[in-house]
Amino acid sequence: MPRTEVKAKKALGQHFLTDLKIAEDITLALSADTTPNTLEIGPGMGVLTQFLLNRKDLNVVAVDIDRESIEYLHKNYMPHASKIVYGDFLKMNIDELFSGEAFNIIGNLPYNISSQIFFKVIEYRDRIPQVVSMIQKEVAERIASKHGNKAYGILSVFLQCYYDIEYLFTVHENVFNPPPKVKSAVIRLKRNGRTELPCSEKFFFTVVKTGFNQRRKTLRNSLKSLLPEGFESPYMALRPEQLSVEDFIDLTTLLENCGKS
Questions:
Q1: pLDDT tens, position by position, 69-103
Q2: By three-state DSSP, how is residue 101 classified?
Q3: Residue 203: which residues within 8 A CB-CB, separation 6 or more?
Q4: Is a pLDDT exceeding 90 seen at residue 17?
Q5: Which end of the chain, N or C, is surrounded by fewer C-beta atoms within 10 Å?
Q6: Dist CA 51 CA 39 (whole Å)
Q7: How far is 209 from 144, CA to CA, in rounded Å?
């Protein structure tokens, strides 16, 4: 396994990890028990790639929008061109990856687009059973946060609706080149058993977004535009962060049954 030093390079909002032990720990957090197919997003200079390719239980493909990174990977780690995809994950046709089969995601995600990547994961949740990623610590805490906490929000509810989420460990600034101004964290998402909601998914998303758009207000005020005349529920006296995922599903179902969808 090459032990090359990661180049001092910053691109697309990425700060490149230089601690190989942490890189190995991230790759070991990914399980192949659901599928060996694994997409690495933003491999950069291959700090994770070298450990992923050493795992014989994984079928790894890397996608990067930076041609310099792709050329470096092709030369040093991935001689087969089919294993490297040039492109933007957010704009890719997911159905073409791994011939339509399920696949895991792993990567040190660019801080500036990590939330967008997770929203795409939600969209393709039935194709993506597992995600292991390093992201900004604040975002990781938000995703893993339980109801009742200030960090709990829209992304928390949407992801926890379909995934079991584990905050694995914190990564400090001094193991990156160049060092970022914030701490990072590694989280793991595993698809839960929820296959469908008892209410309209579109309306569920609307209720959650509308509630958190004015998170300091009670739901009676923040959801005013969605409430049928005379609608009453104990939820109305609460603020959005006080509702669990199941509470939001229940509230959406109640509203939908009142004919206000």
A1: 899 999 999 887 679 999 999 999 988 899 999 99
A2: coil
A3: 252, 255, 256, 261
A4: no
A5: N
A6: 14
A7: 18
Instruction: Identify residue 44 by its one-letter amino acid code.
Output: G
- The H-or-E segment that residue 246 falls in is helix 245-257
- Label residues 200-209 b or e (16+ Cβ within 10 Å = b): eeebbbbbbe
Residue 117 tokens read as 């990547």
- Structure confidence by residue, pLDDT tens digits, 213-226: 998 999 999 999 99
Predicted structure pTM score: 0.90
Assigned token pair, 244: 């669990």
- In whole angstroms, what is the distance from residue 254 CA to residue 28 CA? 43
CB half-sphere exposure, 7, CA atoms < 13 A: 12
**3 state DSSP class of 183:** coil
Query: CB-based contacts of 133: which residues, under 8 Å, 6+ apart?
Result: 41, 105, 106, 107, 108, 109, 114, 117, 186, 187
Sketch out the chain's domains with CATH numbers: 10-191 (3.40.50.150), 201-257 (1.10.8)
